[in-house]
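Team,

Forwarding the record for the chain on the shared tracking sheet. I've put the sequence and predicted structure together so nobody has to dig through attachments.
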Amino acid sequence: MLVVLTVGVVSLWNIGRTPVAVWAGGEGKRPGGHGGTLVVVGGGGIPAPVASHFVGLAGGKSARIMVLPQASSRRDRGVSSVKMFKALGAQAQVVSLEDSRRAKGQIEAATAIWFPGGSQAALHEALDKAGLVEVIQQRHAAGLVIGGTSAGAAVMSSVMIPRSPESPGLVAGNTPAIPGLGLVPELIIDQHFVRRKRMNRLVGVVIDHPGLIGVGIGESTAIIVRGRRFRVMGKNSVVVIDSRGAKSGRADRGERQSVRGLQLHVFRDGQEFRFPKKR
């Protein structure tokens, strides 16, 4: 049974369960020439199966994982990620952006990239200043596996939410949105979604960007993106806010939003969602 919510103005948590086929997955390059697999974690602890799956995608014992921790301002940023991957048998190291040429070489030699948490705006700004955004996009298009958690998850979409809105209301332009890496341009990814009650901000930004699909990922949970589908791994939920076919009422910046035909789906471990190419 598929539960679809059709709403006028959305402001409350409404949950429908969507039983779907379990996707067995597979490794390597995303099908149909859509770039490398993405492992997108909603923050919190990284589940052991997700970390192991990421290392497997990256090449297992032959994996060379480059950790880009520039979302964080901590002195030991990236160290815990390196330890996690080394414990699984992979080669891993933190990439410094002080020497952008060296960093580019490390990315080009990698079998996978990992973005830890922090501030997605700070991460994107650092990568942009180092001239690495296009390098990462090109490597991903060629099949490079990329993963990240929290801010490292949010940065993967074309449109990302850098911070919470000033007010919780559904108001046009209320939810801030800035460019991301564009690795999965059809989706807007939000992290820590259930614990931090971020439904309104994701609904708001989806209404502001018609045609895009909002994906709210719970903590200790990941989506594994291959082609134009993803599979859920982890103990919590993934909420999808689908604006395809929805009709938004006209609202100038600062005015209340309204929408008809918005769909909401809730997924759990092992379930799959398919989405079309961005028009």
